Structures are given as C-alpha cells and as structure tokens.
Amino acid sequence: xxxxxxxxxxxxxxxxxxxxxxxxxxxxxxxxxxxxxxxxxxxxxxxxxxxxxxxxxxxxxxxxxxxxxxxxxxxxxxxxxxxxxxxxxxxxxxxxxxxxxxxxxxxxxxxxxxxxxxxxxxxxxxxxxxxxxxxxxxxxxxxxxxxxxxxxxxxxxxxxxxxxxxxxxxxxxxxxxxxxxxxxxxxxxxxxxxxxxxxxxxxxxxxxxxxxxxxxxxxxxxxxxxxxxxxxxxxxxxxxxxxxxxxxxxxxxxxxxxxxxxxxxxxxxxxxxxxxxxxxxxxxxxxxxxxxxxxxxxxxxxxxxxxxxxxxxxxxxxxxxxxxxxxxxxxxxxxxxxxxxxxxxxxxxxxxxxxxxxxxxxxxxxxxxxxxxxxxxxxxxxxxxxxxxxxxxxxxxxxxxxxxxxxxxxxxxxxxxxxxxxxxxxxxxxxxxxxxxxxxxxxxxxxxxxxxxxxxxxxxxxxxxxxxxxxxxxxxxxxxxxxxxxxxxxxxxxxxxxxxxxxxxxxxxxxxxxxxxxxxxxxxxxxxxxxxxxxxxxxxxxxxxxxxxxxxxxxxxxxxxxxxxxxxxxxxxxxxxxxxxxxxxxxxxxxxxxxxxxxxxxxxxxxxxxxxxxxxxxxxxxxxxxxxxxxxxxxxxxxxxxxxxxxx
Length: 648
Description:
By secondary structure, the chain is α/β, with parallel strands linked by helices. Helix content is 44%, strand content 17%.
C-alpha cells in the first residue's frame, strides 16, 4: 500500500494547477509594495520552510534585509516594526503560536502585515480583518487532508511565490511559471527518478546523524529536510552552510564518522566550495550531493520537491511513513498550548518599551523584576490617583526637539489653559533658560501666567511664568565660573563654548568633537569629583549644572507655595539613566513620552513607541479630567485606547 507521504507527493500536480491568478497577483503586488523596506518572515514547523522560501524569492525583488523567525522569536522581539513588513506563513492559520505572532505584529506596530495560508477561514485572517496595513493571501491546495508534513500547503506556497515573483520582476513579460513548474515536477515524480534518488541514499543507516551542508541559496530546501526528518523521527539532523561547517563542526565527523552521513545541497555557484571540503574528508565518510544548475528561484523551488523526495526515500529505507509517523499522547496538548498567545497579549507597547530599557541596562536584580506585573501596578496607581499638580519637561515633551524654537501647538496650549482654569497647578521643568518662558508668555493668557511655575536651567532657577528672568537674572555662581575656566582649559574637546548662564552650561551634542571622550574628561574634573556639579543629557544637548539644580525643585516650590506636599503627575521625554528627566520621572507617577529607564516602578511610557513627544503629551492632557477645583484624574482607559488606535 502506498504510504501517505507518497500519495501526497503524487498529487502535487493538482495543487500546481490551482495556483490562482488572483492569489499570485495579490502576492506580486505585496512583494512590489514592500520592496523598499526590510521584512520578517515568520513560520513554524513546515511553514518555517515556506517563510525561508519567501525570503529567497524576495531577494529577487528587494535589496532590503529579510529575516527569518519562528513565532516565539518574533513574539519576544522588542524592536519597533513601523518600517518593517511582516509576513506570517501558516498552513491552517488556527494554531495559538501563529495567532500570538499576529498579536505581536499588531502590538509592535508593523508597517505591513501579510498572512499566507491555505485556509480561507483561518483565525489568523479573521484577527486582522479591517486593518489598513493587512493583506491576506489564500493559496489553494488540492488535498486539504495534507498529512503530517503539510506537503500540499508547502508546495502551494512555493508555486505561488515563484509565480508572484515572476510577475513582480517581469510584469506583462512573465513566463508561464505554473506550466514550467508542472513540467519539472512531473519529471521528478516519475518512478525511475524516485528510484534513482533512493539508490543514491542507500548508504544511509537508520542510526545515522545527518550532516546537512548547504548552499545558503537553498536554505528553504535544507529547512524542509531538517524539519521533516525530525518530525518523522527518522534522523537527528545538523544543518549549516559549507564554510560554517569548516569552523569546528567537522569534529563531529572526526569523532563519530561511522554513525554520520553527509548530505550536501549545492549549486554551480557553490559547487567548488563543497568539492574543496569533500576532497579533504576521509574516504570512509559516507556522503551524497544534490546539485542544481543555478541558484535561481525556479531551481530553488524544485529543490523543495527534491527535499521532500529525500524524506520519502529515507522513510522508505526505515519502513516509516513520514506523512503519518505516529506521535505521543502529549503531542496535541503541547501543540495546542496557548502560553505564547497569553504572553503576546501581555507584551503591549509600554511593556515592550520598558523591557527594551531593562535589557539595555542589564541590572542583575534580586529578585528579578517582573515588568508585566509592574506595568499592571503602575496603571492601577495612576488610575486611582488624584493629582493637584502637573510638572512637565519642555523640549521633546511640549515641543519636538526639531521645533524647539517654535511655540507649542495650539491644541496643547488649549489643554494647559483648561487645566489651569480648573485650578490645577502647572510646572515646567526645563533645561532651557528664559526662552521657554518667553514662548509660553506669548501663547498662554496673561491672567494664567502666575499659575505656572517655571524651573529654568534644570531647576537651577525657579520663578513663576510672569517673571522674565532675562530682566531679573540670578547672579553667577562661583562654582559655575570655575566650570567656565575648566572648559576654557580644554578647548580641543568642544567645537564651541556652549551656552553659558549663571547656573548652567548647555552644549549641543553636535558641537562636541568626541562625546565619549568629553564625558570621560568631564567626570574626571575636580568639580565633578567633589560633587559640586553634575550633568544631564537631553535629546540634543549636555547640561552641566550645579549639584543643587534639579527639576524636583519645581515640586519643592509648589509644596512651599501650598504649605503641603503636592501629588504631581510628572511628564518628560529623557527618562533614561543619563537623561535630564531621569530624576523627575523616577516615581510611580512619572510618565515618559519617549525614552524610559530600567526602573520598574516609575518612568513608564503609556504608549511605547506608538505615540511620542507632543503627540503623546496631548493624549495625556486630553485624558486629564478635572474632578474638582485644583484636582484632576487620568482616564486610563482613554489613554490605553489612544495608544492602541495609533498602532499600524
């Protein structure tokens, strides 16, 4: 009786006939639309081979990077994907791992999301319906009961991708790819061709470890062999390219050559590299080579069939049907386990943002910080808090760094004026001098100026907004005079003297000859070592300030004015460990609209990288509801919604 895998292989011609014009057209359009941005192809099991073959085809359309990942790799990634196309490959599209990857693509703000599946009713497709950046690509199969190795699903994707790539590359001058594939497929499926391949593998023993050495252009075929041999429990497999094998893995053959078989997949391009290695291996090492004429996508597609035929041949040698190998009672429970899906839904944008900072910091904390639990705690604290003050950074928060010489947006001014009108005390803690006050006096109603507390020069000078510090400057500190003299003695590390005030020196980072060297020299300076000065960094400058200068002075001024402690919402953009908002935001009510630090209980972004700067501030201000005179609360649900609707 013909085994299941052989039956599935015999029927591949019918699936080739089903490569639909509409499917390949949508794939061709998607390949063309994404050619200018990097991509990530995601798949597991046999679909990982589909994803690998996609990357092979995409290289003929785009010169941008194409990464290959499993769903778990993808879910645990933390990079922003707003300029990356994500391609998700799945046979039936219902397993929890691919659904976790769908959730992650949404939460990570992918520029494009594509799902390629042989199931038009796939849950992965339904999850994405209605999203502007989503495209679903259905590839028909002739046999939906596809066997353990999903043979028809794999070949349907391969045939569709080759046809679509032809359209994307050649347009109206495309060849009839399905007919070409059909011709080559039928030749490979002839009984004589399969018998010949089986004979070439006669030396493989049931107990052998397969060393699968490959031309990287044939990675998809190699992944197919590796995955299938493991899934059918035929052989342990070690897959690598020819030269990586030469960097140490050859020891396996030296120690275990009697129980190893080398299978090489090569093209004319890489044949000499393999020959050079093969000639130097001991004659006792059993080996076989599958070589294609070139590394083109059509030959690469046919090598996918060769890979399946290799699996068929090795299964026949052991009397095992790779299409129905038999599995343990634990197979279904672990396949359907939803742990990755649960984790993916918890890794919302703010959590990913904080995890990234946590990884960068690499603090060895005992006990380890549970960032997800910390996020829940911070949200609940913000949800239940009543604030009687709002303290904000200026550059990067109220205005963008690029537009710091322009006034704040009218929408932000309107919201600030609304809160002031509700009796809320407003504080601005900025690294700037008087220019920030001049901007705000021009746009806020004059009768509200005294209600705004300005902390100029990182809190070195605190005044109400109605006071023009250009007209009433503080005296020059002797310590700051010593800073001027130190800078004058080190002219080689700066391209300019910086902006010098009585309590601070601000230096644009692009005016520093060597930033790392400058910071090293500054830290060694006598005034730094004595603790009389410190420095902080914003997105565009380094501020050298007096030790007593801190943005927290704004809060101290407010408390003194009210004769009690204030409960302030604190907002800034430079919350990382060297940022000038690090101290201000190091509190459970500290919110960053850009960079965050590793600390779990403060300095969170509510939007991750989905909303930044003034846009994020505006969302927070709009969610700030005055509940009685001088007191406001945050509408947390509105903020979460604002972050979610900005994705993708």
